[in-house]
Amino acid sequence: MDKFFARFANATAHIAGTPTVFLACVVLVLVWAMSGPFFSFSEDWQLVINTGTTIVTFLMVFLIQNTQNRDGAALQTKLDELIRTSNADDVFMGIEKLTDKELEVLHERCEQMAKETQAALQKTKAERAKRASKSDTRRRSA
Fold first, then answer.
1. 38 DSSP 8-state letter
2. Contact 12, 63 (CB under 8 A)
3. What pLDDT is attached to residue 28?
4. Which pLDDT value is given to residue 142?
5. How far apart are CA 117 and CA 19, in angstroms?
6. Is the pLDDT of residue 31 over 80?
7. Cα–Cα distance between 35 and 2 in angstroms, integer?
């Protein structure tokens, strides 16, 4: 049942996101709007579009959420594998399960490490520029 639903949800989400389906929905709404005068813009006429859009929206929410959940889990698994096989800190594996506060602390730690790395790069760049200018000065005086 899970595999069938996963395939169905993926196929439906893929099809629903195509320009053709969007245009078909626009045409359907336009046909409904143009049919208003024939039905005297009655409550039944309005009920048709309201009921139809509500049912489609209700069902699509579950299909799209299912697709999003699987995509998110697949992405997390891929990232975890990259972390596991690299020199990255293993503390990042599974962080999607942390609280907002814990994520904020980890984010601040990453920002601090990025600032330190940037400072080290700037220092190295300045040292290289300094060496290059000394080298140029020596060449000119020779």
1. G
2. yes
3. 95
4. 63
5. 45
6. yes
7. 41
